Amino acid sequence: MSGNGNRRNLLWLQSGGCGGCTLSLLCAEGPDVITVFETAGINVLWHPALSVESGDEVHRIIDAILSGQIALDFLCLEGAVVTGPNGTGRYHMMAGRDAPMQDVIKALAERADHVIAVGSCAAFGGITAAGDNPSGATGLSFDGEAAGGFLGDQFMAPGGLPVVNIPGCPVHPDWVTETLSQMSAGTMLPDDLDAVGRPHAISGKLVHHGCARNEFYEYKASATRLCEVGCMMENLGCKGTQAGGDCNTRTWNGSGSCISGGYPCIACTEPGFEDPGHPFVETPKIAGIPLGLPTDMPKAWFVALASLSKAATPRRLRENASSDRLKVYPDRHKSKRGRP
Amino acid sequence: MSRLVVGPFNRVEGDLEVKLDIEDQTVTRAEVVSPLYRGFEEMLRGKDPRDALVIVPRICGICSVSQSIAAAEALGEAQGLMPTPNGQLVSNIVHACENIADHLTHFYMFFMPDFARSVYADQAWYSDVSERFEAMKGTAVQDVLPRRAEFFHIVGILAGKWPHTLALQPGGVTKTVAKHELHRLMALVKNFRRFLEREVIGFDLQAFSALSSRDELMVLVDQHGPTHSDLFRFVDLSRRLGLNRLGRATDRFLSFGAYRSGTTHLFERGLYRGGEDHQLNSGLITEDLSHAWMNGPDAALHPFDGVTETDPEMTDGYSWCKAPRLEGKPAEVGALSRQVVAGHPLARDLVATGGNVEARVLARFLEMALLVPMLETWLGEIKTPDPFMAHASMPDNAKGAGMVEAARGALGHWLTIENGKIENYQIIAPTTWNFSPRDQAGQPGPLETALVGARVQGGETGPVSVQHIVRSFDPCMVCTVH
Lengths: 340, 482
Fold this sequence. Notes:
The structure holds 2 protein chains of 2 kinds. Chain A is α/β, with parallel strands linked by helices.
């Protein structure tokens, strides 16, 4: 049995995470997520926040998938796979099943045509793996940067794709709806994914693109404290020039983004973002030069250009950069028409 | 006697299992199991204190802002730093938006779909209610999701995004709001208010929040009929099913106080028990480990001294959740407790014969009706020329507590900084209180108490009465253990 009519079956599980990717997904607009599932031909077998089924009703759905009675087109996992303590998975026993959730995930992943990691926890371990990783959290096919993760680096789903990683902490709702819609239509191809399994449509752009502080960046006119309007790369740990994501061109919850909210990009779409090796809101430096410059620019050139542009910084940008609001406005370029 | 293990409970923001002993079709004993441990308190140890503001909101995708605000207050206390007046106003607005949206999400997405179950098919109200509230298919979902999403534009403007913002800081907010933005924000609030008044509640918010008794509400429902609004649909079915007699818990209602204004709160802090108001002495909060899979001293400790060390082999353990107690006793938290403690006459009347499922649901409507007009007030009080954030250095050695109210109740963070790093960080979340396991004295947690007496109809493996009681608390299981 495959779906209702021609619809494709989706099962969504949550494990070592906060549920915030689902809550973000419920913010999908134009149209809402339920409508997208409908128009994309996706039949939700079960979703922990959306479905009515509870308890035994859920186990019956899972058992029917495992026995092959129901075809599973998409397995979505939100939250990391919890393997601790010592590989037992005891830190997340699936309720009402007396089985570690990791076993349920593994069994279902073997049955699914496609496996999708929703959010940075499911993809790479994410925040759940932070610090000493108390719960033994790992991503489905990556553990931080390292390929492998829970399902192993050879994992390839029958649908012809590795685990598709929708990154973000949380995900942007459109990243999920657009990825699932493409997969449902069969238009997502192996070449559409980057080296860590993220769709290029998401990670092929940088958070830096469309950042409203770009002019400050160009002249290295920097904010020194949170709430100031200058570029946050030099002092406040902003990773927008290195992090994949269209956060400043697509925008969040209407017109928002981390930068427009006044705080730095912490690269939540990147593997290992949870342990940057420095306080999140502080840029590590050597001899006054920030570490973590743009990944594809020769360092010497960057330093040369930076010192040149810093010397050429207009007063407007210098003064605004360390203010909590614009103080100096751009000079007007006067037209010839109507001049005395 | 028979035993029923029910799980997974969905629509509870995380994973939950409940073990029920049943005699004569009635629950006689319940054990509430929180099956997921992630270890945030361990994770935070040794980090730069400021990193807490990145990590703790990610405890929870639905109370993310509440977690941020608790951390900001704890850090602020350690720093001796208060938010600027503008910063406090914006923080309150963002916090209230999350709590209002959570109430809406709970009612439409989590709580009401259970009344579209076929077990109710012979009820007079069934066809109307199931058409409106059926999970994913009901007409309500497609009405509500776009409204909820647009309402969150307020958070998009003020805090960048939801969930998981870094805008909320000990000294205020990182966003400086411009004059023109206030007008857009006001329009968003008013549009949302119109939606609540037309469809959700069915009449003027201020008139609704002026109700002082359950009887007055019943008169209105009789006058206008159940299909007048979604609230009335609920009141009608609740009256017919007797939800006001279902799910009584400990009747000790606790609130940490919500929405700061100087040194006071819009909804005051306190404990209501035995029909009387009591001051909250936060020094008498402890966490008991006797029935958690946790190691530690036998004596229950105050969270400043709390320890988090897992032990899956603990013989008496049955949950990853610790058992928080106030003055050695369990307490119920949530919108109902908050409004009872704040002294709202309707809330007090709703618990005249004890807490119950209906009262917990109605308190959320009451709170939406109180808070949306407050958003307009707070927006009006912002003075755009003034600063939105104050700054202070982080001390090398300090302590701080952040005690706030998430949508689903009292949330506390207790932080100790030593040598510039986090030495200890203890969190007690709302559902830690409500869904706590037993303690050394054998006292059950509030849900464990509330489930006793629930009726189980023949053949039910996931009794619908149990579903209603569990979800009436608006549990957040990812917060519970964290």
